[in-house]
């Protein structure tokens, strides 16, 4: 990609800012996780640089190179782009990351962007992250497949080993890598939704259990994470549909059959996420209704106790007016009688409130 020189920075006082320390370029090999050459479904022995691997693959009829990259910077990605002839726009997306899932075609090169998700173990009643997201980009072209991964989860080393154990799939060439990575990403969607389903079921049980205390914040947190999951998962449906049904893409027919299975799993995940969203919306309403009922119950108790306290307060207020002509003031039985009257009236009120389930 073309780079533009940065303009000098000056302080408002007119003095030039201190010159930034030059950035030491990191070798491209640091970003390469693995680089292998595959011919007729089998990996060739030995270690190759990307240039050597591409030259070796081009010397065969069915060979291709698979380069795996992890968090490459702009310089590293530009080096790979020059070797394999990648389009600058696709290279920019691969460096920046956080892209919406999409499928782009640049001549004979396909560029697929997928969002990865990972379930984070957490306390159900604590506000914490539940879904961690990342990115995986796949370039496929004549004689090469390049995977670019951002994030610390959803590694592809296991995908490579599993695919190397199926030479019949590897014989499809670079599309086999595209299918394997897409299948791996969608499988991670399935695992994540299964874990979130357990959270939703636990939350439902807590909300509808009598006398349980569930904070509305934890439900909102889970719902927010489900929304984040939907934003990562749902847009991938359009690229998968294109890979299955668009006959103009340079992929073999057998690849479309494999991708149809991936697309079916993706549809199931989307339906499950939609159910989570609806269920959590219902749980929010149920929790709010439960809180409202509890508040009404508390208000009735407060009102009942206030009514019982009002009776002795009223009687004591009458005797606190200091009138001279109150005949019972001079009787020995007056004070015990008034206290007994207060107790009896309060007991009658307490019995009435208890009978009406206010207390």
UniProtKB/TrEMBL annotation:
Residue ranges of the region described as Disordered: 1-22
Record's keyword annotation contains Transmembrane helix: yes
Transmembrane domains' residue ranges: 302-321, 333-350
Keywords of the record: Cell membrane, Ion transport, Magnesium, Membrane, Transmembrane, Transmembrane helix, Transport
Main localization of the protein described in the UniProt heading: membrane
Cross-referenced InterPro entries: CorA_cytoplasmic_dom (IPR045861), CorA_TM1_TM2 (IPR045863), MgTranspt_CorA/ZnTranspt_ZntB (IPR002523)
GO MF entry, a single one: cobalt ion binding
Keyword Transmembrane belongs to the record: yes
Pfam families: CorA
Lipid bilayer topology: Multi-pass membrane protein
Catalytic activity: Mg(2+)(in) = Mg(2+)(out)
Any one annotated GO CC term: plasma membrane
Record localization: Cell membrane
PANTHER family found in the cross-reference section: CORA FAMILY METAL ION TRANSPORTER (EUROFUNG) (PTHR46494:SF1)
General function of this protein: Mediates influx of magnesium ions. Alternates between open and closed states. Activated by low cytoplasmic Mg(2+) levels. Inactive when cytoplasmic Mg(2+) levels are high.
Record family assignment: Belongs to the CorA metal ion transporter (MIT) (TC 1.A.35) family.
Protein name: Magnesium and cobalt transport protein CorA
Source organism phylogeny: Bacteria, Bacillati, Actinomycetota, Actinomycetes, Mycobacteriales
């Amino acid at each position: 990609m073309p780079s533009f020189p940065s303009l000098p920075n000056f302080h408002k006082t007119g003095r030039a800012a201190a010159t930034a320390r030059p950035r030491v370029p990191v070798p491209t090999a640091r970003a390469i996780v693995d680089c292998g050459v595959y011919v007729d479904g089998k990996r060739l022995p030995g270690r190759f640089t990307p240039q050597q691997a591409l030259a070796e693959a081009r010397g065969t009829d069915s060979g291709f190179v698979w380069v795996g990259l992890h968090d490459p910077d702009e310089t590293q990605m530009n080096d790979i782009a020059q070797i394999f002839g990648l389009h600058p726009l696709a290279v920019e997306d691969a460096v920046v990351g956080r892209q919406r899932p999409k499928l782009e075609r640049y001549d004979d090169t396909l560029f697929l962007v997928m969002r990865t998700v990972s379930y984070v173990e957490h306390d159900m009643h604590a506000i914490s992250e539940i879904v961690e997201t990342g990115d995986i980009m796949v370039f496929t072209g004549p004689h090469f497949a390049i995977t670019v991964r951002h994030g610390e989860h959803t590694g592809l080393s296991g995908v490579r080993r599993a695919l190397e154990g199926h030479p019949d799939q590897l014989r499809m060439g670079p599309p086999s890598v595209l299918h394997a990575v897409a299948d791996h990403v969608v499988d991670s969607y399935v695992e994540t939704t299964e874990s979130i389903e357990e959270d939703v079921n636990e939350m439902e049980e807590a909300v509808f259990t009598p006398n349980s205390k569930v904070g509305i914040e934890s439900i909102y947190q889970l719902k927010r994470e489900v929304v984040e999951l939907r934003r990562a998962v749902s847009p991938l449906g359009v690229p998968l549909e294109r890979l299955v049904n668009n006959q103009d893409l340079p992929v073999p027919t057998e690849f479309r059959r494999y991708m149809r299975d991936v697309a079916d799993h993706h549809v199931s995940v989307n339906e499950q996420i939609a159910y989570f969203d609806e269920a959590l919306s219902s749980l929010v309403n149920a929790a709010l209704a439960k809180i409202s009922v509890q508040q009404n119950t508390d208000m009735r108790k407060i009102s009942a106790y206030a009514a019982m306290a009002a009776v002795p307060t009223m009687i004591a207020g009458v005797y606190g007016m200091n009138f001279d002509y109150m005949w019972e003031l001079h009787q020995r039985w007056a004070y015990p009688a008034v206290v007994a009257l207060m107790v009896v009236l309060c007991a009658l009120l307490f019995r009435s409130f208890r009978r009406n389930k206010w207390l």
